[in-house]
Amino acid sequence: MMKITPTKNNLKILVVDDEEDTREGCRRILTRMGYGVFTAGNGREGLEILEKENTAIVLLDLKMPGVDGMEVLERIQEKAERPLVIVITGYATVETAIKAMKLGAYDFIAKPFDPDALRIVVRRAHEKVELTREAEKLALERRKTLLDLSTEKSRTRTIIESLPTGVVVTNSSGNVVLINPSFKEQLGLDPGRAPGGHVEDYIEDDGFCEMVKKISCGGFNDSRDIPVYEFSPSDGRYLLAKGKPIKSEDDSCIGAVITVSDISVLKALDRLKSEFVAEVSHELRSPLSTIHEQLALVIRDIAEGKSTEDLPILSRALDKTHELISLVGDLLDLSRIEAGTGYSEPKMVKLDELIESVVSFLKTKAEKRKQNLSIKLPDESVPDIFADPLALESIFGNLITNAINYTQEGGKILVKIDILDDRISVAVIDNGIGIEEKYLKKIFDRFYRVKNEKTRFIGGTGLGLPIVKGLVESLGGTIKVESTPGEGSTFTVFLPVAH
Ligand code: ADP
Predict the structure, then answer these.
(1) Of the four, 92, 113, 237, 415, which is 20 to 30 A from 102 by CA?
(2) To 10 degrees, the CA torsion angle through 239, 242, 246, 251?
(3) Can you give the pLDDT at residue 79?
(4) CATH number listed for the domain at residues 347-496
């Protein structure tokens, strides 16, 4: 066996022939043609080379001692990557030709052959090898593209199926061709509901169906003109639909894609905002009109030259402006707390000292109402709190002021500090007018004030407790209230201890 270095065309050829002259002749010619050539003197040797080397063409003598050419041909056909076989034969009969062809031989060359005949037959085989390789490459690329396409398609389908937004796609006559699970859920449709029907079979809302039909049939020249559509299916939720036409390559409209989002939360926020603005306007209007009337009186009196009796009127107006200023102050505090921007300079605070100073500040106010305002500290020392001291002053200032305001003259108010496991509790206990059970939750709402005979003449904004609750929560604490009408109330704040 002899191996010749493969050259430019990189194709390897095996020559299997028991006649050395033929083998060597072939080797010379083929090497000159630029092929890498292996030679084998018998069938067994030839098969061994085929096992090891990647050979594209085999020149195979049919008549050899031992393993003959037909057997080698059969064995070659069993291989996954088969080389092309050119049969060399000295007695080319029709029968052997047919047999060899049936076994998969590609071509024939009769012995003795001249170099040109060999070159022609090898070139033809070479072309066939190249063509087969090219075809295989194309087939592989095509398979890969198809695979990519189907992966892409199933990926897109999965994404649409999992979108939190409802999606419905229609064709140009308004027939539904796709609906995703979110859409079915939003519209209360059966999860197994299939596309196929007209849009009206899925949604009862006329406005929605009109919009879908108009977009589907190309009713909007410019898709920026398509309005968004808001609607409410019966259960009080609000949905927002946005649509776009689907254009074909020639720019004609072939359907519509509509997305549907649940905007109930936004709607609720919007409503709260409007209610809040209405409440604020209401709260501001009544003291402002009082001031307006009082000032008008003073001006009239001055114009009539009898301004001497105006002092009480002016002082009432002054009180009202004071109320307004504190209302606006509370509103600003509340909006800062809700935006998370107020009271954000925490430091280590000695809570007992801070509460003592708030109590002593409010003592005069309590004494005016002949109330007993006292503080009870725990036996052990109070651990520090990590918080903005202004926030703590606002919390306890508001609670103690409420206790003073909503407790009759001569009443008792006690501020009690206790140490729990990893929290400190501060209870503001009064024996005042108390709060009915049904109002206990509401008093933490903005502007909520209990209105009854006992509270009628007590001024306030209804913003104190929402501020307190917002601040306590921003410090990682909680607040609870217990109250019995006619007996008194206890507001308890729990705050985490600083570590
Ligand atoms: P304001 O005191 O300005 O009205 P708050 O938000 O501080 O507003 O309190 C809301 C309502 O809760 C008060 O109007 C009052 O009816 C009730 N309230 C608060 N604290 C007490 C208390 N210690 N005793 C009885 N009622 C109280």
Answers:
(1) 113
(2) 160
(3) 81
(4) 3.30.565.10
Report pTM: 0.53
Class of domain 3-135: alpha beta
Alpha helices in 340-386 (DSSP H): 351-368
d(CA 160, ligand 1 centre) in Å = 52
SS3 385: strand
Q: Residues 253-281: pLDDT tens digits?
A: 999 999 999 998 888 888 888 788 878 88
Please give the distance, rounded to the nearest whole angstrom, from the Cα atom of residue 402 to the centre of ligand 1. Answer: 6
Q: Which residues pair with 178 in a beta bridge?
A: 169
pLDDT of residue 157: 87
Range of lowest pLDDT (271-280, 424-433, 477-486):
271-280
**Distance between start and end Cα atoms, the chain:** 87
Give CA–CA dist 375/415, Å, rounded. 5
Q: Which two tokens stand for residue 346?
A: 């925490």
Is pLDDT above 80 for 10? no
For the segment 440-473, what is each residue's pLDDT rounded down to a tens digit? 999 999 889 998 888 888 888 899 999 999 999 9
How remote is the CA of residue 491 from the centroid of ligand 1, in Å?
11
pLDDT at 7 over 60: no
Domain 152-262 annotated CATH 3.30.450.20: yes
Closest ligand 1 atom to Cα of 467: 6
User: At a CB cut-off of 8 Å and minimum separation 6, what does 264 contact?
Assistant: 236, 237, 238
Predicted local confidence at residue 9, as pLDDT: 63
The domain limits of the chain are: 3-135, 152-262, 266-339, 347-496
Length of the chain measured in residues: 499
Under CATH, to which class is 266-339 assigned? mainly alpha
Enumerate residues lining ligand 1, CB below 6 A.
402-403, 406, 430, 432-435, 443, 448-450, 455, 460-465, 489
Q: How many other C-beta atoms lie within 10 A of the C-beta of residue 455?
A: 15
